[in-house]
Amino acid sequence: MRPGKKISWKKRAEKVPKRLRQFAKGTARPALNRFLVRYSNVGDPVVFDNELFPWTQRFEESYEAIRQEVIGLSALQDRLPAFQDLSPYQQRITAGDRWKTAYLYGFGQRSETVSQLCPVTSRLLEEVPGLESACFSILSPGTHIVAHRGVYKGLINFHLGVIIPKQAEKCRMKIADDTIVWQPGQSVVFDDTNLHEVWNDTGEERVVLFVQFHRDFRAPARQLSKLFLALLRLTPYLRVPMRNGRVLDAELREVALQRGLLEPGS
To answer: What is the number of other CB atoms lying within 10 angstroms of the CB of residue 50?
Structure first.
């Protein structure tokens, strides 16, 4: 660059995605994760003790109401998007249209359609400290999600079993050396930066409420985590799902109105 030549903010933003992709593939991301967990206020287990997150109990207590809201969503089952329709970057781990999602909140924006159809779940989500995303994750019978890792240690995952096959032991997630078998009305909190893989080897559908929230850090990791997430939001990795989410939510709303699930003007 010639002395005195200025680079516009737009040009700088355009360079961020490539740099972050290089960061994600290299050795810097593990180094960042190691630094972050040194300042974690909740430790760094694979599976957390739910008592560290008191709000999880309220979801378990409201399980029946949440289940009824999911049953209500079955009227839109044929129009719910596959996970890769929302986030194309997940194609390598998804199983075509066999992994569907009903988003309530994600990528910094709320799904008004699903939130209106699921008011109890939506209100509970407002109580989650550091909420980043939330959806109903729907696995068709015989679905396999290949082994993969989450992006970074700044986010923690919560699952609430909502609709679980009768042969629960055949519907499971292996994460590191632990195997999680979902149970109706029971929740699990885990760190998805560990290698994990999912199977539904049953003839029934599996639905869990999936919530992603911010890990609590001490300084300076708190500030570094926020900076990394802010940079990530400038990349296609999150900008594309944000755009797709708005389009898919509008389409789902039209169908919900046509089928009488929502009132006009609601």
So the answer is: 16
